[in-house]
Design a protein that fits this description.
mainly alpha, secreted, 17 helices, binds protoporphyrin IX containing FE, 3 strands, Peroxidases_AS, Haem_peroxidase, lactoperoxidase activity, metal ion binding
């Protein structure tokens, strides 16, 4: 019996036992099962994904073609803090326990908040993890993704209406709780990184020894900068490797970090290129037909808002089933399937599929590397009081 058959049987069994709602289930609405939905029509003055404008739609098309965006990506360099996962203290001005005297309770406060937030909606763990990725890949981990003023990255094509507004609000709640005990001490950039660390842990993943000491950026990146740096889900393996290399990340980082797709959801518009106009030969047929049932026709406005689990076997558990899925040709994005198209990345996928502790170990190292991209430290930037707003605009 081949791997795909075993997987399909496993999912059918889980569905029959009521472990998952339906085979290859669609997630309800645009959130993961809590009934709490992001509101795509909220304005930029409050927390919400902002509606797609015509200009953004044009960029989105370019982003979806993938190769074009990657071709722009060459100019991005990792900063002093990108130097990998070596042990010990300072890495580009960061250290483990940076707040041990200035705010020793920071992680406890974040964990208390997150336990409540995740209990209400476990999908927030995925939302927060993706926020960290999209923050760090664009002008470094400086919390610029959280800014709503004077400009915002949230309307940029790779973020628009897909970064969870409710996860942004969750981070605002966490930051407010941290400010209540340690006013003006902990940056929003560190709040994202520590919240991600704890969200991954609470979802069953590894405990990542993140360093802290990041400071917050003063301005958001442009739409073009976001498009140039966030890989679209249509990239082939060569372009995907190149995008990660541009951020100082190698194949081990690419494969292990892609394992972040073990939790969370995808909107059908990102899945559609796999199933229309024709079904990708990369996909298991039964799985592709179910995706078609969930997502097509693409021009149906209800289907366009529909989401599906990234890992339908254990959608909310941080584990290594993502790698078994893609070996069974059960891949949500072309970029997931593409990891099996180069011998080095295929070998890593096979290793992590067999060995969860090894995946967790590499994921931790790669997350630390990603968390140190182009960080601001020392006197650079500022410690924002409110993550949506640079301090100078707070009273205006
Ligand atoms: C390798 C290149 C990557 C591509 C092309 C990619 C693309 C995407 C896309 C298109 C979505 C769907 C968003 C939506 O429809 O709402 C998504 C979701 C997600 N991605 Fe990635 N991603 C990549 C890497 C990563 C990395 C490095 C991480 C973190 C380590 C990550 C974590 C997530 C998570 C957790 C979600 C679910 C978000 C949610 O449920 O709100 N991704 N990704």
């Amino acid at each position: 019996m081949d791997m795909a058959t075993i997987l399909v049987m496993l999912v059918a069994f889980a569905a029959a036992m009521g472990c998952i709602p339906t085979m290859f289930a669609a997630t309800p609405g645009s959130e993961d099962g809590s009934g709490v939905k992001d509101n795509p029509s909220l304005s930029a003055s409050s927390r919400g994904s902002v509606g797609i404008t015509d200009r953004d739609a044009a960029h989105q098309k370019a982003w979806r073609t993938g190769e074009e965006a990657s071709a722009h990506a060459g100019g991005f360099h990792t900063g002093s803090g990108s130097g990998g996962s070596g042990s010990g203290g300072g890495a580009g001005g960061l250290s483990v326990g940076f707040y041990s005297s200035s705010c020793p309770q920071v992680e406890t406060v974040i964990e208390q908040q997150l336990r409540v937030i995740l209990q209400a909606n476990i999908g927030q763990a995925a939302g927060i993890l993706r926020i960290m990725f999209h923050d760090c890949f664009v002008q470094g981990c400086d919390a610029s993704l959280l800014l709503l003023r004077p400009t915002t990255e949230l309307t940029a094509t790779p973020n628009n209406a897909s970064i969870r507004a409710s996860s942004l609000r969750a981070l605002d709640t966490i930051k407010a709780a941290v400010e209540a005990v340690c006013p003006g001490v902990v940056s929003c950039a560190d709040t994202i990184v520590l919240s991600t660390k704890i969200a991954v842990k609470l979802s069953g993943g590894p405990i990542i020894p993140m360093r802290t000491g990041r400071r917050d950026g003063l301005s958001a990146a442009s739409n073009q900068t976001v498009v140039n740096n966030i890989p679209p889900p249509t990239l082939n393996i060569t372009a995907l490797k190149q995008n990660f290399q541009n951020h100082g990340l190698d194949s081990r980082d690419l494969v292990s970090l892609s394992g972040g797709h073990t939790i969370g959801r995808a909107h059908c518009r990102f899945v559609d290129p796999q199933i229309t106009p024709t079904i990708s030969t990369d996909l298991n047929t039964a799985f592709a037909l179910n995706l078609s049932r969930i997502c097509l026709p693409a021009n149906n406005p209800i289907k366009a808002r529909q989401t599906t689990h990234l890992d339908f076997v254990t959608p909310n558990l941080f584990d290594n089933s993502y790698f078994n899925n893609i070996l069974a040709k059960v891949a949500i994005f072309h970029t997931d399937a593409a990891l099996t198209n180069a011998s080095d990345t295929l070998q890593l996928v096979q290793l992590y599929a067999q060995n969860q502790p090894l995946f967790f170990q590499q994921f931790s190292q790669s997350m630390i590397k990603m968390s140190q991209l182009n960080v601001l430290t020392g006197q650079q930037g500022e410690i924002r009081k409110k993550c949506s707003t640079p301090n100078q605009f707070l009273n205006s």
